[in-house]
Design brief:
By secondary structure, the protein is an alpha/beta fold. Helix content is 44%, strand content 16%. The protein binds ligand 3NM. Ligand 3NM is lined by residues 11, 110, 129, 131-132, 136, 138-139, 142, 166-169, 187-190.
């Protein structure tokens, strides 16, 4: 179930969009995204009421299409909206504590190595986000790219962990990422920076699903 939802995970905030975030999400939904993360971060990111209002509208769209709506690093916002889950990084609120606060909502944790995967699992994470796989322009403080080898390494030791790969993934690399053992891809640019969002998203979806069927 979770592995299915991770197939094409769209991550986005207003800063990532060159047009109305609601229009971007609508097109991405039409293209076939399977999960959504509201990540309102970086220079010029909305805060307070403005952030809340945007989240509320994006959540409505996801609800209407049965797409899990995950909030990045803001447990209060996730609880206020009754969102489907929360995603936290290694530097954010501790995963154990987030788990206690959100009950059985989804918990995702960013990881960079096998040790962090094991820690996330003991904090009862529902999935891990491994990255950056390739260099990324979307996260200023991203660590060094870990490559496809890290996906294979983690999969060899944790056969069942729901794992989504993130960082610099494009139509050109999505197939290799799934073949290396990821259950899905999480992307910002491949959708936000696409000239035709719906078509490009649809193409990504097809690539991922085709690779997953063969795996
Ligand atoms: N987290 P793009 S990389 C949000 O390594 C995020 O944990 C990362 O954006 C991590 O698809 C990243 O444009 C940015 O490369 C992903």
């Amino acid at each position: 179930m979770m592995k299915q939802k991770l197939s094409l995970y769209f991550v986005m905030g207003s800063v990532d969009c060159t047009k109305d975030p609601l229009a971007v999400l609508d097109e991405a939904i039409e293209g076939g995204i399977t999960m959504f993360q509201f990540r309102e971060k970086g220079k010029g990111a909305l805060t307070g009421v403005e952030k809340y209002r945007l989240a509320e509208k994006l959540f409505e769209r996801c609800l209407a299409h049965n797409i899990p709506f995950i909030v990045n690093d803001d447990v209060d916002l996730a609880l206020a909206l009754q969102a489907d889950g929360v995603h936290v990084g290694q530097e954010d609120e501790a995963a154990e504590r987030v788990r206690d606060r959100i009950g059985d909502r989804y918990l995702g944790v960013s990881v960079h190595n096998l040790n962090e995967v094991k820690q996330a699992l003991s904090a009862r994470a529902d999935y891990v986000g491994l990255g950056p796989i390739f260099p990324t322009v979307s996260k200023k403080d991203a660590k060094q790219a870990c490559g496809l080898a890290m996906i294979k390494h983690i999969r060899a030791h944790e056969k069942h962990v729901p794992l989504v790969a993130i960082g610099g993934i494009t139509q050109q690399t999505a197939k290799q990422v799934i073949e290396a053992g990821a259950d899905g891809i999480a992307v910002i640019s491949a959708i936000c920076r696409a000239e035709q969002i719906r078509e490009q998203t649809k193409r990504l979806y097809e690539i991922v699903m085709c690779a997953k069927q063969k795996g």
